Amino acid sequence: MIGLVLFLVFNKKEPTGTKGAAAEALTQKMFKAIDKTAWDSTHYVQWSFAGMNHYVWDKEKHLVEVEWGNKRIILNPNEISGKAYKDNVLVEGNAGDKLVKKAWSNFCNDSFWLNAPAKAMDPGTERSIVKLDDGSEALKVKYSSGGVTPGDAYLWILDENSLPKSWQMWTQIIPVGGVEFGWNDWKKTSTGAMLSTLHKGVFDLKIENVKTGQSLAEMGISKNPFE
């Protein structure tokens, strides 16, 4: 009963936007605000998501070291393949495959929270302008493919410099439409890319230990985890 009341009170219908040149131009303004060019040229990224999952990502080769608890997976996200370790012992067979699949699912989610604005023009996306009640314009990005839950839509609320302030979400994983989380505590990384390190909402999600570099050594990593 409580869940139904919350759904009726907070659920918002997914807004209809207007596609076209204005939406594409607003997307480019957002890209400039986050310095997507710097992000695209960044070789390595390290971060921790919500204090649970820890990543080292070779963006050029698209290989990821994913760690949580006593698990460590070397992941190829494009192929959803890799090697899984538990307590530093190789896990093979079906058990290993399940860990690799979980690492892939975690990476899709956690890398999206790390820098979703940079994915606004990924293959399978469509962009539109939504007029807000205060007369300002928000950018709606809908994903028809890719990731774990294609079909999700996000409405970006931007500040006067086109830097994201928050997003509202219509996703398969959250039954209430229009749930809003902030994109707060923006940090300029050593490679120039701008990343939000705090998402404030019904609960807070922290992005910690964020480092970028053109080499692993720049991030303080002496041993290449992918060798």
Question: Could you characterize what this model shows?
Answer:
The protein is of the alpha+beta class and 227 residues long. It has one domain (16-218): outer membrane lipoprotein receptor (LolB), chain A, CATH 2.50.20. The protein contains 4 helices and 14 strands. The strands form 2 sheets. Strands 6-5-4-3-2-1-14-13-12 form a 9-stranded antiparallel beta sheet, with helices on one face. A 5-stranded antiparallel beta sheet has the order 7-8-9-10-11, covered by helices on one side. A hairpin with a 5-residue loop joins strand 7 and strand 8 (137-143). The longest helix has 23 residues, at 93-115.
Layout of helices and strands, plus pairs?
Blueprint: H1 2-10, H2 21-34, H3 36-40, E1 44-49, E2 53-58, E3 63-68, E4 71-76, E5 81-86, E6 89-91, H4 93-115, E7 125-131, E8 137-143, E9 153-158, E10 164-170, E11 179-182, E12 184-188, E13 194-199, E14 205-213
Antiparallel strand pairs: 1-2, 1-14, 2-3, 3-4, 4-5, 5-6, 7-8, 8-9, 9-10, 10-11, 12-13, 13-14
Give the tags.
227 residues, alpha+beta, outer membrane lipoprotein receptor (LolB), chain A, 5-stranded antiparallel β-sheet, 22% helix
